[in-house]
Amino acid sequence: MNNADATPYLRPDISYGDYLDLDRLLGAQHPRSDQHDEMLFIIIHQTSELWMKLSYHELSAARVHIALDELGPALKMIARVSRVQAQLIQSWDVLATLTPSEYNRIRPHLGQSSGFQSYQYRMLDFILGLKNAGHLRVHEGNPDVHGALLLLLSTPSIYDETLRLLARRGFPIPGPRLERDWSAAYESDPAVEEAWLAIYRDPEAHWDLYELAEKLVDLEYRFQQWRFAHMKTVERIIGYQRGTGGSEGVAYLNRALGASFFPELLNVRTNL
Questions:
Q1: Which of 34, 189, 239, 256 sits 20 to 30 Å CA-CA off 22?
Q2: Comparing C-alpha atoms, which of 107, 151, 127 is closest to residue 61?
Q3: Which residues make Cβ contacts (< 8 Å) with residue 127, sequence separation at least 6?
Q4: CA of 2: how far to CAs of 5, 7, 9, 11, 13, in Å?
C-alpha cells in the first residue's frame, strides 16, 4: 500500500485516551456512598482543581514575564485566567442543583475533608498576594505541599512584581514596597495609588501598564464573583451550619469577600 493512501488514524502513535490519560482521569471518582448525587459532588470539585491548576500555571508564568518587563505574554496569560474563572463560577451553578436533603445524605461520608484544605486554592491566594501564614497549618501533615506553600508564601506575588516594574519605569514606588517580608500581607500605600493615578490620567503615555492594570482589575473582579458564587451556593445548600472539617462555612466565605488582591487599583477609581 502507498503510504500516502494510508489512513493516519488506524494506528496512531498515541491515542486520544492515552494522551489525556483518560483511564486514570475517568477512574479517579470513588464515591463513598450509594447516593446518586455524590458523583456530581466529586466531579465538580475535581474539575475545579484542574481549572485551578491551569490558573496557577498561567499566573506563575505571567509573574515571570512581568519581572522581565515582557508584558505582552503576561497580559494574554492573565486574560486567560479571567476566562478560566468564568468556568469556575459556572461550576457553582451546577453544584447548586444539589438540594439540602441530597447533600445531607452525602455529608456523613465526607469525613473531615473540606474545601478549606485545597492547597491549590491557597497557591492562587499567595501568588496573587493574599498572604496568611496561618493558612499553612492545615497542610503540616503533608511535607511536600507544606514546603511548596511556604516557598510561595515567601516569594513576591504578581502584584509585588508589578510594583517593581513600575519602579523600573520611573514611578516613585516606596522602598518598603519593593523589598520587604514577602510572607507578610500587603498593605495599601498612598504613593502606590499616586503612581496608578498617573497611569490612569494619561493612559496613552503608559499604555502597556494601563492594560496590565485593567487585566489585574478584571482578574480580581472574576475572583470576587467566584467567591460570591461559592458563598451563595454553600448558603443555599447548608445554610449557616459549620462546614465539613470544622470550617466556618458561610461566615468564613463572607469575610473572604472583603479581601482585595490589588487595593490601590480599586481605590484609584474613586480619586480619578
A1: 34
A2: 127
A3: 56, 59, 60, 63, 152, 157, 158
A4: 5, 11, 15, 15, 19
Side chain identity at 151, as an amino acid letter? L
Phi, psi of 11 (to 5 degrees): -135, 70
Q: How many residues does the chain have?
A: 272
Residue 65 CB: number of other CB atoms within 10 A? 18
